[in-house]
Amino acid sequence: MKYAYFRLPIFVRMLLVGFSFILLFGGLIHAAEPNTYRTLFDGIWWAIVTAATVGYGDFVPKTMLGKFLGIALILFGTGFISAYFAALSASAISRENALLHGNVAYTKEGHVVVVGWNERVRELLKQLTAAHPSFTFVIVDATLDVLPVSYNQVHFIKGNPTYDSILQKANVAKAKMIVITADQHKNELDADMASILTLLSAKGINPDIYAIIEILTTQQVNNAKLAGADEIIQTNQLSSFSIINSLQSPGISPLIEQLLYRLGENCFQFLDPPDELVGQTMAESSRILLNQQILLIGIIREGVPFMNPSPLFTIQQSDRLFVLKHH
């Protein structure tokens, strides 16, 4: 308690000193000229107006002692008030710079941590901030000095995401999801190893966080699973899939791209089967869902995907429906 005052921020201490000057001189002028300053509040009002250099002139010292008090307040009190506002401005600018350069820890919860900065992350933010204004993101990257985009829902942390201290600044412990993208400045193997190390660090801090990781090499997929990845996105396989389908059916890639891109109009989702679909065939379920502008693509049963199964495939209560839903 003895040193609690000195632990306060400088602008708070200066504010306390300034208020002390106001109260002191307000009380002194009230005692020195009780006929002019009939109440303590009158004295405090005069002290504030004088120290702020406003000078309304509604209260003016009449005696020599009162005038000396006015001089003392102007010399000392005004300096403290000016210094306080200067310190307050400097503190605000300093915090704004720290926030801009990724040096301020994130304290809220329920956010999505995104590791790495690249065009994939830029597109992710562009679409999700527009489609889901309630989502909040924390971008963690060691290569950026300033985040090149500005969204109200996005916070930037500069640093190596494999360090626990950096992930703690991103408040991974209170985040609901983490998306780990491949480092574009490394070769594929090194990028995958760095991603898996980041995943291990994140899971060490928050074992329940839902982790989506981008893996570039097939050899590291199993390691990512062992590290606790909930979803693995194999970017190179997705690119290869698009190229193969374009070679087999020229012109198909723009359709695939449009289908995946138009998040605002269509989106892939998992749905629990409504009671009316339990026991129905794939063909009958597709017909019912189409009337609701929902395209049934596949079924997830006990973790095993069945894409475009037989029309006679029967839906069970425990299944999850993989659909394309029109908003």
UniProtKB/TrEMBL annotation:
Domain RCK N-terminal positions: 109-233
The protein's name: NAD-binding protein
Top-level taxonomic group: Bacteria
Gene Ontology cellular component terms for the protein in this record: plasma membrane
InterPro entries recorded: K_chnl_dom, NAD(P)-bd_dom_sf, RCK_C_sf, RCK_N, Trk_Ktr_HKT_K-transport
Bilayer disposition of the protein: Multi-pass membrane protein
Pfam families, per the entry: Ion_trans_2, TrkA_N
Annotated compartments: Cell membrane
Annotated organism of origin: Anoxybacteroides rupiense
